[in-house]
Structures are given as C-alpha cells and as structure tokens.
C-alpha cells in the first residue's frame, strides 16, 4: 500500500576486520593451552593453526623471522608435514614427467632434422666419392 511505512529497521552490518592474531578461544595445536595476545606463537602456513615457538622447537629469533617474512618462508606444523611430503613427492613426479617430455621432444626434433638433412658426399651430385686407402707396404 502506498504511503504505509514499515516498522522494521534494517540492522547495521557488522564490520569484518581481518584478524592476523588468533581469537581468544584459540589454543596451541601441540600443547592445547590458550594463546595469549602478543604471545610467542606462529601460524602454520598449510593448516592455518597456531602453535607456540617452544612447542614447535623453534628458536625465538627464527620464529620471529618466519612470522615477519610475509609468507616468503612458510612455517609448517608437525601434523601438516605428511601433507607437505605428499605435495613434494607430487611435484617431483611432475618435474620428472616434464623432463621426460622435453627430452622426447628434443630427440624427436633432432632425429627429424637429421633424417631430412643428409650432407652430400661431393659437391657434384652426379659424381660418387670413392675412398681409397694407401698401402704402406711397398710391394
């Protein structure tokens, strides 16, 4: 009906702020203790879980370097390492297959070019080149 206003007010949207720090309810992946704000913890690059430096056996300087490297040097927790090894094995297999394909293509092109170009024995195509061996015996 025209002119009738609704009593329902639109709810304000919540602002989503990207959190780099873990929530209050986060706990260490290894020891299960809660993580303190500005604590000594690091995020796994594969599973996105957090763990204390000490629980991972990382020296504090190394952990701070990994934390500030902007994912240039990823950190992996122990539960993620088997997944990582599978990825590495897969990448090694892909690398071997690519190498085999490149070698096959190179060999194919080389043999194709070699089969087309057969150098002539002499500059005169009608003349046959005869190879004679000298006999060093003066007989």
TrEMBL record:
**Membrane-crossing residue ranges in chain numbering:** 100-118
Q: Where is this region: Disordered?
A: 1-24
Start-end of Basic and acidic residues biased regions: 13-23
Alphabetically list the UniProt keywords.
Answer: Membrane, Transmembrane, Transmembrane helix
SUPFAM superfamilies attached to this UniProt entry: FYVE/PHD zinc finger
Q: Which domain of life is it from?
A: Eukaryota
Annotated protein name in UniProt: Zinc finger PHD-type domain-containing protein
Where does this protein come from, organism-wise? Micrurus spixii
């Amino acid at each position: 009906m025209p002119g009738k206003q609704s009593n329902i007010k639109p709810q304000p949207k919540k602002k989503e702020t990207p959190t780099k720090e873990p929530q209050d309810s986060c706990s260490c992946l290894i020891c299960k203790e809660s993580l303190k704000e500005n604590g000594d913890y690091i995020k796994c690059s594969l599973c996105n879980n957090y763990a204390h430096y000490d629980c991972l056996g990382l020296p504090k300087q190394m952990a701070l370097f990994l934390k500030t490297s902007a994912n240039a040097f990823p950190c992996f927790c122990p539960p993620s390492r088997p997944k990582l090894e599978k990825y590495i094995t897969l990448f090694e297999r892909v690398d071997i297959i690519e190498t085999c394909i490149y070698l096959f293509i190179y060999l194919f092109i080389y043999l194709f070019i070699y089969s087309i170009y057969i150098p002539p024995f002499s500059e005169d195509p009608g003349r046959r080149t005869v190879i004679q061996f000298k006999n060093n015996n003066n007989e």
